[in-house]
Every structure is written in C-alpha cells, then in structure tokens.
Write a structure and sequence with these properties.
By secondary structure, the protein is an alpha+beta fold. 40% of the residues lie in helices and 17% in strands. α15 runs antiparallel to α16.
Length: 469
C-alpha cells in the first residue's frame, strides 16, 4: 500500500491539512508545503515515493497515536489527569514580575520568561520562537535564539500561518538542545517525528505549548491591516497583541506596518471588523476537527486567564498547565524569589478560563463528526464520539460557524482581486448577523433554563436585557 498516497487521499484531499510541514520534513520526495490562494500553508503531494513515515507524523492522520497515548508515554509518572487538559503536575495563574516580559510579551509574559529561564539555567542551548519577518510572502517565521540574545524580540501572538519543516531542518543540522514554542497540533507532530528522527528526539528537549483557539490564514492579518489603512499588497508586519491602558485584557491593540516602514494607529481588536474570535473568520478547516485545546503533549501549556477577576487588567495574566518537573521547579523557585507573581489554581479554574474553546472542540466537534459520518465522509479519528443529541440552537451555531469559516476565505479572496474591502464586509455581514442572532438566542435560552431551575423566572425577565447586549 502506498501510504503517502493514502495521506493525500485522506488528510490533504479533504482539506484537513494544517500546513505544519511535518510530512515534507520527514519525506520531501513526496510532499512540499506552499501557500494556497487563501493564504494558508498546505501540503502538496508530489508522488513517486514508497516512504510510509509521512502518514505517521501528520497530526490529522489516522495512522498515529492520539494525544492521550503520546502524553501517557512521555508523562507516564504523572498521576493527575483531566479529560480537557490532559496530564499535569500543577496549574497556575499569574504574571511575570521581573523585567519587561509582561509588558512586551503576550498576556502575563510567561512564554518568553520560561524560554529565557531555560537558557539561563543551561537547560537548553537554544530556544525557538516566532518573530515578525520582512521576508516577502510571510509575516512570521521561527527563529533560533541562544543565551545572550534578546528573547523579547520574538513576536507576541502570531495569528497567521507558519510551518515547522524549515526550523526542524535547522535543528537537525545544529548541535545542542532546544526548547520550542508550538501550537497543540505542531507539538503533536514534533512528538511523532521524534519517533522516526533521532536528531529531533535527542535535541528537542522542551516544548512550550500555546493554548489555541484556532489557526488563522494570512487573510486575518490583511483584514485588520486593511481597516487600518494598509492594503494587503503593502503589508509588511502586524502587531496583534499590543496592550492598551484602560482597556480589558481581551481588547488587544492592533497596528500594522507597511512596506515603507510606516506604522498605523493602534486600535482595539474589538473595534475592528473580524475581531470577534467566535466568528472564526479565516480558520483552517482542520482546527474544527481538533480536540486538543491546551496542548496536552507539551511540557507546559501557556494561555490567557480569561477569568473575570483578571480580565480587567490590561497588562494580561497567564494560566499555566505544567507537565514537566524541571519547569515546575523553575516556577516554584521564581515565585519564592518574587520574580513571578503566581498562585496554584484548580483544574476547574483552567477549564473555566477556556470554556468557550472547550465547548466548541468537544460538543461542537461531536456534532461536526456526526454530520461527516452521516454523509459517509472521511474524518480524522478523534477522542470525541459523534453525537446528534445536542440542543438545536447549538447545532445552528456550529453550522453557522462553518459557514463563516468557509465563506470568509472565498469572499476575502474576491475582495482582494477587486481591491475592495467593502465587498468582503458587505458579503459576509448577513451571515455574521444571522450568527449573532442565533448566539444571543442561545444565551437567552440558557439563562432562562438556569434561572427556571432555581425558581427565578421573574429574575430572568428582569435581568435578560441587561445581560444580553
């Protein structure tokens, strides 16, 4: 059996490719990665090879271990586990106190802090993170840092497509040990590659995981920049996670830089069309068929503390799920030394901080799998059972999210060809309005259900208009 062809016929042909480049890294005779017309990295099948490892390393293939099996092998000594966040030692909430990590990093600054800490303690010879790049054709790329380099040069959040294969080739050809930041699916790919590549297995010592809502195509950056006055063909760099004093933590400061180096004004993401993450503009289809929210195969998951007691702090706050004993000790020592202001929290608090993503990736995924199964379509194997027994209003929301995902790609591509941003806004707005109405009706029904359950229907009538805006 030609397993390379099978990878094409299942994952790639059915648009479940996330563009990570794991297949091309392990077998560049059969695969290469390039951008499609929608600004997404996608694998291209070249044919002509009998290699089989590519299908074993693709994070959306059915020929590899799932996140449970991977983490059970790597973190076999850990006794604590949860179905939403995987295995763990401890969970924390807080921020970095020392230096400029918090102000110049995403959220509470922990992601950059831990990379620097691993270098300073000689736990890794190099660390790998994304940086903004002026290279034509990409907004972000992976870069290798060593001790003494300015870790803060790395980007904050990069809501744009990136690929692993090029940086893994650099790691393979360089002596030393590495820590790398990675999305959940990228981490899964690295763990699978390590089974077949001794260099990756021995050199990648730590994976720092990014809690993930979903991966965007390059169109997301172009849409924001266009609204700020920089057309897609003139966009050079973009900042997604600036911090705006007086705003809530989820109101992220966005600015763009054109090819002449001119920087635009900074504007809250909430004020830009497409800034509602729930709309899922420009999402990869693969992200709607992923059941790992936090990065269960990583040594520490780093995310935003979307909890009411922290969201008003514009500087941002991290939640952490720690699976590596060395990383946990570094955190405890830094707390003791007042370099980190962090406290241990419950798993329930972590889940609460990511509840929207969890609902979409578990309940929503169960319904999406049911629909695919009903139509006899191929889907990746998931740890979620296909299910049609969810409320009709939730089903409608999930269907509309897929429509927003797919139509946003097509409409924005047409808008760019027409050089007309309004074409996109006008075209997608009816779907957005239908979705917003369905979403609000669902929240109203949920509030009514809860208050009815505690005998407070009159309270529901009094508060519904204040809660639903």
């Amino acid at each position: 059996m030609d397993l390379d062809k099978k990878l094409y016929d299942t994952v790639i042909k059915n648009n479940y490719c996330i563009g990570c480049g794991a297949c091309s890294f392990i077998n560049n005779d059969s695969f290469e990665v390039e951008k499609n017309e929608f600004g997404q990295y996608q694998a291209k099948f070249l044919g002509g090879s009998n290699h089989s490892h590519a299908i074993n390393v693709c994070p959306f293939s059915n020929h590899n271990d799932n996140e449970d099996k991977i983490s059970n092998k790597i973190y076999s000594k850990l006794n604590k586990s949860n179905k939403y966040i995987g295995k763990y030692i401890s969970c924390y909430v807080g921020h970095v106190v020392e230096g400029e990590y918090r102000i110049k990093g995403s959220s509470g600054g922990f992601g950059k802090w831990i990379l620097n800490e691993l270098l300073e303690n000689k736990d890794a010879d190099y660390v790998v993170q994304l940086i903004s790049t002026d290279n034509k054709g990409s907004l972000f790329e992976y870069k290798i840092f060593e001790k003494g380099d300015d870790i803060l040069q790395g980007s904050k959040s990069a809501y744009a497509p990136v690929r692993l294969d090029e940086v893994l080739e650099m790691i393979k050809n360089q002596d030393g040990t590495f820590a790398i930041t990675a999305l959940p699916c990228f981490s899964k790919a690295i763990r699978q590659i390590a089974k077949f590549d001794r260099d990756i297995s021995s050199k990648v010592k730590y994976i720092i995981g990014i809690v993930c809502g979903h991966l965007k195509s390059e169109s997301f950056a172009e849409l924001f920049a266009w609204q700020l006055g920089v057309s897609p063909d003139k966009l050079s760099q973009i900042e997604f996670r600036g911090k705006i004093e007086g705003k809530r933590a989820n109101e992220k400061g966005v600015y763009a830089i054109d090819e002449q180096g001119i920087k635009t004004r900074t504007q809250s993401s909430k004020e830009l069309f497409g800034g509602d993450w729930g709309h899922g503009f420009f999402k990869y289809k693969a992200c709607d068929y992923c059941d790992d929210i936090v990065g269960e195969t990583t040594d520490v998951s780093v995310g935003d503390a979307w909890l009411e007691e922290y969201i008003n702090d514009y500087l941002g706050t991290n939640i952490l799920v720690v699976r590596n004993e060395k990383v946990n000790n570094l955190i405890l020592d830094a707390i003791q030394d007042n370099r980190l202001e962090m406290k241990e929290i419950s798993v329930d608090d972590v889940i609460k901080s990511q509840e929207s993503g969890i609902r979409h990736r578990r309940e929503g995924l169960s319904y999406r799998l049911f629909l695919k199964q009903k139509n006899n379509e191929w889907v990746p194997d998931k740890r979620v059972i296909p299910n049609n027994k969810i409320p009709e209003k939730r089903k409608k929301i999930y269907r509309l999210r897929e429509k927003l995902r797919d139509e946003s790609h097509v409409l924005f591509d047409e808008a760019k060809k027409k050089n007309n941003l309004q074409y996109f806004i006008t075209g997608i707005s009816p779907v957005v309005e239908t979705y917003n109405k369905a979403y609000k009706n669902n929240i109203k029904s949920y509030i009514k259900y809860i208050l009815n359950k505690i005998g407070s229907y009159n309270l529901y009538k009094r508060v519904k208009n204040k809660i639903i805006k």
